[in-house]
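Question: what's this shape?

___
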Amino acid sequence: MSAPSVVRPDADPGLPDGAEDGVAALRAAGLLGAQDEGAEEATAEGVAPDAPLLLAVDGNSLLHRAHHAHAAGQHRDAAGRPVWALRGVVSLIASAAARLTPDALVVGFDCARTSVRRAEHPAYKAHRPEKHPDLRAQLDDAPALLAEAGLPVVVAEGFEADDVLCSAAELARRSGWRCTAVTSDRDSFALVDASTSVLRVLNGGIGGSPVLTPRTLPLVTGVRAGQYRCLAALRGDTSDNLPGALGIGPKTAARLLAAFDSVDDVYAALDDGREAEVRDVVGPGVVGRLRTPEARANVARNQRLMAMRDDLALPDLDALRLPLDLTRVQAALGARDVRLGPSLWALVGGAPPADRYSPLPSWVDEAPLPDGPPDDGAGAPVDTVAGAPEDT
């Protein structure tokens, strides 16, 4: 089995923990077509709708989700090895390709050996429990299996799938392409811009998941495109063991960013004798918490660790182009008893089964947008799709 490519680099508000994307808010705003409630055509604002599309897939995120969704079936190959998550991740990739009809594809995985973020901050993700052996085995097998099947796979030494997605988005932007990141990880909200959208995979699968663009991102985060990382730095990220500014949650962070654009602007106001401007937005208590040395240190550290690399040495777009070779895909997957049949059509250049796929509606740009994410009437964000894990 051939190994995936291992590349080395050349020498911002968000949902509260446990919450999911505001599908109900998108529907209420008229931004979900009657034909499909979750994943409209991924056309980011400011980009020609016919520009080629690069699909950048977070392999770790989707494999985690597939494992939890299908573990009850305990599907194994002839050698007794678990394959349910492997089958699930290929199915999710194929479904995303069927939804969005990309011109090219890249799948990123975390480097399991080293981590530049953990080298800087040893507590990074250190609280996470050991993965179940069946999940660990499939995570170890997935990059090589997908590469053997012909999918372009990148594992960047010391870096994560998020960095591969960010570098893919930059590659697409430089080339006049669009990019859609496919992930269940909210960190990728930071990638949304005029050429990059995010298909956030939820419990309903690809068909029930929203595509986030600069227009729709504020519905589910309360902040504009380009601000998510600042929001996350202020709020912190418990899933990564990164505390933020004590007592500052996503709604307070969103109010700050509505007034000051970035974390740096907030602290510039505090340091330049303009504390009253910050106090008018969030009150004296929050100002006091922002001023503590611990808050400053946490926020600065979070900004560094949450920043994704956009300069990893990816293959060029010609090497990432679809379609894949059907014979190669079937041979590699079949060797592990992973058989998907007609669902692979969008990856291998086939025709969609007429009874299963139909054209997708576009975003309804004329509909007015609400001022922020849904809440319960008392200011608390609503968990619109409860129970789905943060698959990182």
Notes: DSSP finds 16 helices and nine strands in the chain. The beta strands are 5-7, 53-58, 104-109, 153-156, 178-183, 196-200, 211-212, 236-237, 242-243. Residues 220 and 373 are 5 Å apart (CA to CA). The longest strand covers residues 53-58.
